[in-house]
């Protein structure tokens, strides 16, 4: 059933190679602008004249290698090489805000080193990205870093989304940039929407949703953990990231998709199975001969032990026999010796008087006889009927000892009689049972149908009883149910003091009338079973045992009663929906050499069906994942509502999506579906994705850096020293907070 | 090979004092006791690369210790509030003086990190099942989980309280720990 399903395996990350340093000579002294796209996930850097940026994950790890105690500094993908580095990894970003400037410093070092810069200071004007309405703290520290540590001549900040838009709508110079549109930028920890009118980004109308790729990744990881709480391996965020990027998509109409998925067959169709690697259990499977050898060895040991035991018994027996002989010889000597010497002799041996000697001899005799018998034949000893002669003698004829003897013999006889009686009863019961079984068999052979029908009715009766009991127990746990209230009433009655049973008032009289005769009738004690909720267990066990016997008989003889009808399988039946949603791999599912391996394989699988769309749906309604914010559709609606109709028309003619997560399939139809209803029907709506969502921001920045306008918007070193690190110049692609118009 | 050219480059331009750190290649050549094959991590490490472009006189601002996100955002909000107050004051003064409002930069024009955040949703939310993700029209009164149909309800009844709490926290509902 599951062998035909295509299994997806998460690929291993490629091993990073040592990056070579680009030659710097072509750029020396030319003052080409340096373009750095400082993103939360990836940092992209390069000279403005390069065609492509160099890109690397924005992660720094500074740690000491354990083996040789050498300090190492790793950047980007290289961090994955050493496991120790991964724990020490720092990224300059925390979500959307730059917080860790040591990491930023190291990242910039890496960038400059790999561009081959070897001048005493950076001699190129820098164009860098910052977040939409970035906090001033971040900006001031970044500026400080660049101006004071690296001594750049000028620094310009821009918003990456607008630059990506610029790149995709490049005007041919000298036409200025006057496109209109709405940019939806999908970032790592947020999603921003920025309207652009006449080439100018309207930051005051922009909005940011705190849901981005990291949150979606975390949500997917959480869903997987909830669905598979007992998964054998730990699922890492990198793996869910890969799954998110490759197998999740937006659905154009989420509610109708859910309605199709309600059907378990459809659920199965749409699901994707991801196979995780697992480590096989390390039990060695012993071969046949090994097993045989082990059993042989065990048997040998058993035999040896038996021999030892037999020998010990023999020795003891011999010892006892010799003792017996010695003591009988002693007794014979009694005749020979005089009384005094006899008592002295006895004392020496350790006996108090004659009777003790006799009893010991008798004991030894019986022991010897028994063991002899056991050795020779293992049959049950037939007990001869012991005789009690003294019982017939009347009391007057006996002396004291005789009377004692008689009492003893009476007791013994009573015990013996009782034993006989129980034995006979047991035999009778056995015979009855056998007779009953024989009758049943005859009945069954005669008429299978009616016998099966009778048993089935019994079976159902027991099952209903069990169900009733379960229901009753559930009802009792609920404080307000009728069963619980009845129980409380019973308890209250029992505890009440003036309980006058009607019976006594009628018959008795006098002072006995008010006595509480609760326990006189046996049926009264039954009330304790009713109020004690824990007393059901013994009944349950009885019922279950009956059920089992009935089922065994049915299974053995009735061809139409299969395992599926048994109570056990009925109660643990899972609904079709649950088994489609989260299939469980049982032991009987696979055939093959090693069933255990297959079951382990099965348990290391993740079935993703609804989650594939659920995670992406969270972009449009973050409340379903716990983030209290409006979704993308609603935010677009709000933003568009602040413009007049004419402007709205200009904006929606060009809806532009960019950013890494915009590569997820199904986004554009989904946006269409959410925007179309809120616009007047004659307004044209066009949604476009960036040509290269990841790198287009950098390209736009590079393009812009080559134009003549670029030097106008930068903050020079002199201006930095006058204004501080927070003030920037306001231009169409930059932020507006703390900005000065030129 | 490339590394060697770079070493010669460095030597020619005479790096300023204090910033020239020994290159890894140079170290390997001069010290015969280091292992001949550096591990991949060592190869990838750029700790030993020269950084001539750094200003050696720059003293690290101790204040640069990473403030955490909450502190930064509260600071921003404070600044914005103060700024807003100041502007309002100015505007009032100007109104008193001139009598005519100048076309000043409107207050809402200043987007800050917190003002740009999307507001909470006002649309009615759809209810989804916490376990399967399908539609979840029913709610379990004991745990508060939403479920799709009665078979899922059976499953919910058998969940432990901690598992139920996990499901709820995926939705963002964190019940108060008693």
From TrEMBL, chain A:
The keyword tRNA processing does not apply. Keywords: Coiled coil. Residues 393-402 have a biased composition (Acidic residues). The keyword RNA-binding does not apply. Residues 416-449 have a biased composition (Basic and acidic residues). Pfam families: Actin. Residues 367-449 are annotated as: Disordered. Residues 284-318 form a coiled coil. Transmembrane segments: none annotated. Belongs to the actin family. This is Actin-like ATPase domain-containing protein. It comes from Phlebiopsis gigantea (strain 11061_1 CR5-6) (White-rot fungus).
From TrEMBL, chain B:
Residues 127-156 form the Vps72/YL1 C-terminal domain. It comes from the Eukaryota. Residues 1-10 have a biased composition (Polar residues). Residues 1-37, 76-121 are annotated as: Disordered. Keywords: Nucleus, Transcription, Transcription regulation. Its main location: nucleus. Signal peptide: none annotated. The keyword Transmembrane does not apply. Residues 76-97 have a biased composition (Basic and acidic residues). Residues 99-110 have a biased composition (Acidic residues). One of its GO terms (biological process) is chromatin remodeling. It is found in: Nucleus. One of its GO terms (cellular component) is Ino80 complex. Pfam families: YL1_C. InterPro entries: INO80C/Ies6, Vps72/YL1_C. PANTHER family: INO80 COMPLEX SUBUNIT C (PTHR31200:SF1). This is Vps72/YL1 C-terminal domain-containing protein. It comes from Phlebiopsis gigantea (strain 11061_1 CR5-6).
């Amino acid at each position: 059933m599951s062998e035909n399903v295509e299994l997806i395996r998460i690929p291993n990350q490629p091993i990073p190679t040592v990056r070579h340093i680009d030659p710097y000579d072509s750029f020396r002294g030319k003052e080409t602008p340096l373009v750095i796209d400082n993103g939360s996930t990836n940092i992209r850097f390069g000279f403005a004249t390069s065609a492509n940026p160099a890109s690397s994950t924005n992660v720094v790890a500074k740690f000491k290698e354990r083996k040789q105690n050498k300090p190492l500094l790793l950047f980007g993908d290289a961090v994955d090489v050493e496991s120790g580095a991964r724990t020490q990894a720092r990224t300059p970003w925390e979500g959307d805000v730059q917080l860790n400037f040591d990491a930023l410093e190291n990242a910039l070092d890496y960038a400059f080193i790999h561009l081959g810069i070897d001048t005493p200071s950076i001699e190129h004007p820098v164009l860098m990205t910052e977040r939409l309405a970035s906090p001033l703290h971040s900006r001031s520290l970044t500026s400080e870093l660049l101006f004071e540590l690296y001594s750049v001549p000028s620094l310009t900040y821009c918003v990456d989304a607008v630059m990506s838009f610029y790149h995709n709508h490049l005007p041919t110079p000298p036409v200025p940039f006057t496109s209109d549109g709405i940019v939806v930028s999908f970032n790592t920890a947020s999603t921003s929407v920025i309207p652009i009118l006449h080439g100018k980004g309207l930051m005051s109308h922009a909005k940011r949703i705190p849901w981005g790729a990291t949150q979606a990744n975390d949500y997917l990881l959480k869903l997987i953990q909830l669905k598979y709480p007992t998964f054998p391996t730990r699922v890492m965020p990198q793996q869910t990231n890969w799954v998110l990027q490759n197998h999740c998509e937006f659905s154009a109409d989420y509610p109708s998709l859910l309605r199709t998925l309600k059907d378990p067959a459809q659920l199965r169709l749409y699901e994707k199975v991801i196979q995780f690697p697992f480590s096989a259990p390390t039990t060695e499977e012993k071969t046949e001969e090994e097993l045989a050898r082990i059993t042989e060895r065990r048997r040998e040991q058993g035999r040896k032990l038996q021999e030892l035991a037999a020998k010990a018994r023999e020795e003891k027996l011999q010892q006892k026999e010799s003792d017996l002989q010695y003591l009988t010889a002693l007794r014979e000597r009694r005749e020979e010796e005089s009384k005094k010497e006899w008592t002295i002799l006895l004392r020496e041996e350790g006996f108090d008087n004659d009777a003790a000697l006799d009893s010991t001899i008798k004991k030894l005799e019986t022991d010897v006889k028994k063991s002899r018998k056991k050795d020779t034949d293992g049959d049950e000893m037939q007990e001869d009927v012991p005789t009690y002669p003294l019982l017939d003698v009347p009391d007057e004829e006996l002396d004291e000892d005789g009377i004692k003897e008689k009492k003893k013999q009476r007791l013994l006889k009573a015990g013996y009689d009782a034993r006989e009686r129980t034995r006979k009863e047991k035999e009778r019961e056995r015979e009855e049972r056998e007779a009953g079984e024989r009758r049943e068999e005859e009945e069954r052979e005669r008429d299978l149908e009616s016998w099966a029908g009778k048993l089935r009715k019994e079976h159902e009766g027991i099952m209903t009883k069990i169900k009733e009991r379960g229901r009753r127990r559930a009802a009792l746990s609920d404080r307000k149910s009728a069963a619980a209230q009845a129980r409380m009433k019973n308890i209250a009655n029992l505890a009440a003091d003036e309980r006058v049973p009607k019976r006594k008032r009628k018959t008795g009289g006098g002072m006995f009338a008010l006595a509480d005769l609760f326990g006189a009738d046996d049926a009264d004690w039954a009330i304790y079973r009713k109020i004690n909720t824990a007393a059901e267990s013994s009944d349950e066990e009885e019922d279950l045992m009956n059920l089992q016997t009935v089922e065994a008989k049915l299974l053995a003889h009735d061809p139409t009663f299969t395992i599926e009808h048994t109570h056990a399988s009925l109660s643990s039946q899972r609904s079709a929906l649950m088994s489609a949603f989260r299939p469980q791999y049982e032991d009987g599912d696979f055939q093959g050499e090693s069933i255990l391996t297959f079951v382990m394989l099965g348990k290391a699988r993740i079935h993703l069906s609804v989650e594939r769309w659920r995670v992406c749906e969270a972009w449009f309604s973050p409340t379903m994942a716990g983030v209290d914010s409006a979704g993308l559709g609603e935010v677009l609606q709000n933003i568009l509502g602040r413009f007049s109709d004419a402007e709205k028309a200009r904006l929606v003619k060009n809806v532009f999506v960019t950013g890494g997560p915009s590569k997820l399939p199904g986004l554009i139809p989904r946006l269409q579906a959410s925007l179309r209803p809120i616009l007047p029907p004659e307004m044209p709506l066009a949604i476009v994705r960036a040509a290269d969502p990841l790198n287009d921001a950098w390209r736009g920045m590079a393009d812009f850096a080559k134009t003549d306008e670029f030097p106008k918007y930068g903050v020079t070193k002199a201006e930095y020293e006058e204004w501080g690190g927070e003030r920037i110049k306001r231009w169409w692609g930059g932020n507006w907070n703390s900005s000065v118009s030129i | 090979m490339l590394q060697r050219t770079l070493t010669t480059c460095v030597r020619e331009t005479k790096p300023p004092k204090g910033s020239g750190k020994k290159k890894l290649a140079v170290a390997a050549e001069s010290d015969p006791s280091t292992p001949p094959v550096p591990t991949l991590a060592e190869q990838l490490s750029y700790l030993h690369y020269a950084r001539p472009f750094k200003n050696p006189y720059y003293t690290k601002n101790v204040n640069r210790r990473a403030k955490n996100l909450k502190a930064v955002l509260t600071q921003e909000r404070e600044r914005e509030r103060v700024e807003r107050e100041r502007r309002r004051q100015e505007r009032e003064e100007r109104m008193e003086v001139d009598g005519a409002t100048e076309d000043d930069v409107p207050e809402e024009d200043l987007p800050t990190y917190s003002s740009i955040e999307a507001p909470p949703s006002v649309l009615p939310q759809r209810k989804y099942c916490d376990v399967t993700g399908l539609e979840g029209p029913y709610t379990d009164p004991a745990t508060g989980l939403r479920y799709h149909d009665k078979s899922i309800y059976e499953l919910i009844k058998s969940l432990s309280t901690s598992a139920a709490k996990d499901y709820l926290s995926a939705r963002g509902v964190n019940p108060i720990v008693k």
